[in-house]
Design brief:
Radius of gyration: 22 Å
Strand content: 15-25%
Largest sheet: 2 strands, antiparallel
Shape: elongated
Distance between the termini: 24 Å
Number of helices: 3
Structural class: alpha+beta
Strand order of the largest sheet: 1-2
Order of helices and strands: HEHEEEH
Helix content: 40-55%
C-alpha cells in the first residue's frame, strides 16, 4: 500500500465524518420542529457508513499486480428514525391535535452532542493520519536530496 493510498483513505474518512456532523447539526437545529413540508414533526436522521475501495489513477495501473486496494469509508445513505414522535400535552399550541397533544421529534440533545463529539474525534483522527503521512513523504523527499 502506497502512502498516497493512505491519504485517500483518510480523505474518505474526513468526508464521511463531515457528512455525519452535518446530519447531527441538522437534528439539533430541528429538535423542536413540529411541522415539516412533508407533514408531521421532523424525523431524526442518521448516517450509514460503508467500506469503499480507494485508489488513485496511477496506482490503478499497477494495483492488480502489486497490491489489493485500500479500504476507506463512504456514506451509504441517510436513514430516518422510525420511532413514533414524542407527544407533549400543550393544548394552546397551534399544532396541537384535538386532544391537546403536540408531536415533537424524538431527539435527545445530549445524545446528539455525544455523536457530534464522536464525529469530531473521527475527523481529528483522520487529520492526524494525513499529517503523519505528509511527514513521512517529506522525510522521504529529504532523504533523496
Amino acid at each position: 500500500m502506497s502512502l498516497f493510498h493512505l491519504l485517500s483513505v483518510s480523505a474518505s474518512g474526513l468526508a464521511a465524518q463531515r457528512a455525519r456532523a452535518e446530519v447531527i447539526v441538522e437534528n439539533l437545529a430541528n429538535a423542536e420542529t413540529t411541522r415539516t413540508p412533508e407533514g408531521g414533526p421532523y424525523r431524526r436522521r442518521d448516517v450509514l457508513f460503508e467500506p469503499q475501495v480507494q485508489g488513485s489513477p496511477f496506482s490503478a495501473v499497477f494495483q492488480t499486480e502489486m497490491e489489493a486496494g485500500a479500504t476507506g469509508v463512504a456514506v451509504a445513505g441517510v436513514v430516518e428514525d422510525t420511532r413514533p414522535p414524542e407527544l407533549r400535552y400543550q393544548p394552546g399550541h397551534p399544532h396541537a391535535d384535538a386532544n391537546g397533544y403536540v408531536a415533537y421529534p424524538r431527539i435527545s440533545p445530549a445524545e446528539e452532542m455525544v455523536d457530534l463529539i464522536g464525529a469530531a474525534r473521527g475527523y481529528q483522527a483522520n487529520v492526524a493520519a494525513m499529517t503523519a503521512v505528509k511527514d513521512m513523504l517529506s522525510k522521504s523527499i529529504e532523504l533523496l536530496r
